[in-house]
């Protein structure tokens, strides 16, 4: 399993997931840069993602939805704030209504995904920062650790195919 560490820090309002992959940084970057690859790993296995729009450039936007086992769709978006290909990108990640408009009733996290070479493979560090301890606790209660970990753990199968 690629995920090697998960840390929740309510004082600093962060959730940090660390994963190691047996693939070069450029290959892991492609997983996030290509919408068809991204949708294979963004949602957990029981909530597959469909990427509707994907513009991985500063100021760009990604719109997606995950489909639950019951067929219900859950929309979300990324608002891209910075890109340093192939080593990192930053974005706001939020929940959305069916038309991909931000849902102000649910938390938005500021995210920095960093990819560094490690022993011929890639160390990926995923840091999500929330505006309040309550917002972080809300997504923790929604199962974000389990969902994100199971989503990230799908990357090995994708890069092996």
From TrEMBL:
Activator of Hsp90 ATPase homologue 1/2-like C-terminal domain sequence ranges: 22-159
CDD domains per record: SRPBCC_CalC_Aha1-like
Signal peptide, first to last residue: none
Domain of life from the UniProt record: Bacteria
Pfam families with a match to the protein in the record: AHSA1
Family: Belongs to the AHA1 family.
Protein name according to UniProt: SRPBCC domain-containing protein
Organism: Rhodococcus chondri
């Amino acid at each position: 399993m690629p995920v090697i560490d998960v840390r929740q820090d309510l004082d600093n309002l962060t959730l940090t997931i660390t994963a190691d992959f047996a693939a070069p940084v450029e290959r892991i970057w492609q997983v996030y840069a290509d919408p068809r690859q991204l949708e294979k790993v963004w949602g957990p296995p029981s909530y597959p993602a469909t990427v509707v729009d994907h513009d991985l450039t500063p100021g760009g936007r990604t719109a997606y939805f995950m489909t639950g086992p019951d067929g219900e769709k859950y929309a979300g978006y990324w608002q891209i704030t910075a890109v340093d290909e192939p080593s990192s990108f930053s974005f706001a990640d939020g929940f959305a209504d069916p038309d991909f408009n931000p849902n102000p009733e649910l938390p938005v996290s500021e995210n920095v995904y960093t990819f560094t070479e490690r022993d011929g493979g890639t160390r990926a560090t995923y840091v999500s920062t929330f505006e309040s301890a309550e917002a972080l606790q809300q997504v923790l209660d929604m199962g974000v650790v389990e969902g994100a970990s199971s989503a990230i753990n799908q990357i090995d199968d994708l890069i092996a195919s």
